[in-house]
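Researcher: Quick test of sequence recovery. Tokens follow.
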């Protein structure tokens, strides 16, 4: 009876915590949208101002082309543009600080609401979980940046599309901050439980999630700057390397776990280390010869590296178990990397 009452109380407390986190997520989402839209309004206001000044200069001052008024109009346009670029530099410095402060306040509030004592494993995991939930919420609610009046409902798809594109950089930055915050909690968990396999696995998955986020950013159609693209590639490789280090630790403790080697293979792929990726999949098949997903991935690696004979052996093995998957594999025949 007492155990049942304790479990019920614990469940109620957990539900209360989840409800508080939901409230924090809604508040953080609103603040994020306000910060992001504030800068949109800044750009839009200056664009309209310059447009109006140009129109005035063309239609009202054109008859006075020999007058000093046209000089004043042109000077006013250049002054507006100069002011815009000066303020733009200031706001470009200020916005990341505002987003970082928002993330810090969210994490602090989650820690205050956490059910478990600070410096305990459950405390770290609950805060990290809240950060993941915030990240998911950001991704799902992005199209709701702007509310379209009912009279203009036909413009909603267009506004959602271009509104999403305009705020995409802010979204990527915000998600990155929350994923980094989750990683910090996992690192604190490892420091409190250095030999816990679950702690290292959770941290490795956190790094993989962040690495995947950088890949999504890199594949974004809005990324046109070469320097920005190179920075994303550097961050992606760095986080993949950190994930690889965590999986190597797991491999030391659990060398016979196929899941560990599967994650190692993914990490090697992200780091463009094909020989190590092949070794990881070969180890998986030694541990579980009937893992046909590993057979497919290994055959794919062989074809990419030009080891056609071994690739065809994987094709034959896969054909006996999954003809559709084998047909998909053979499509990569001849697509080998040129070193």
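Model:
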């Amino acid at each position: 009876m007492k155990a049942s009452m304790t479990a019920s109380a614990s469940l109620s407390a957990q539900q209360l915590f989840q409800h508080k986190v939901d409230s924090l997520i809604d508040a953080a989402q609103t603040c994020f949208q306000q910060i992001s839209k504030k800068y949109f309004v800044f750009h839009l206001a200056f664009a309209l101002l310059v447009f109006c000044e140009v129109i005035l200069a063309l239609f009202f001052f054109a008859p006075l082309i020999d007058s000093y008024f046209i000089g004043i109009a042109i000077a006013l346009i250049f002054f507006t543009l100069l002011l815009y670029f000066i303020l733009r530099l200031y706001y470009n410095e200020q916005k990341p600080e505002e987003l970082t402060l928002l993330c810090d306040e969210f994490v602090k509030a989650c820690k205050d609401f956490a059910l478990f004592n600070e410096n305990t494993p459950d405390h770290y995991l609950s805060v990290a979980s809240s950060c993941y939930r915030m990240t998911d919420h950001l991704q799902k609610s992005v199209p709701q940046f702007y509310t379209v009046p009912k009279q203009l409902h036909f413009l909603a798809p267009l506004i959602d599309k271009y509104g999403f594109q305009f705020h995409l950089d802010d979204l990527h930055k915000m998600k990155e901050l929350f994923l980094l915050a989750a990683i910090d909690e996992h690192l604190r968990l490892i420091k409190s439980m250095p030999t816990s396999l679950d702690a290292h696995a959770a941290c490795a998955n956190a790094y993989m999630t962040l690495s995947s986020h950088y890949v999504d950013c890199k594949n974004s159609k809005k990324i046109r700057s070469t320097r920005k693209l190179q920075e994303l590639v550097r961050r992606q490789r760095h986080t993949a390397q950190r994930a690889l280090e965590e999986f190597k630790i797991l491999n030391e403790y659990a060398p016979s776990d196929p899941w560990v080697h599967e994650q190692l293979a993914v990490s090697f792929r992200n780091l463009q280390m094909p020989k190590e990726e092949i070794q990881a999949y070969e180890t998986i098949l030694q541990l579980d010869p009937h893992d046909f997903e590993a057979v497919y991935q290994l055959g794919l690696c062989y074809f990419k590296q030009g080891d056609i004979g071994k690739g065809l052996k994987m094709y034959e093995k896969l054909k006996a178990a999954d003809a559709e998957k084998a047909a998909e594999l053979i499509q990569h025949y001849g697509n080998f990397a040129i070193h």
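Confidence is low (pLDDT under 50) at residues 1-11.
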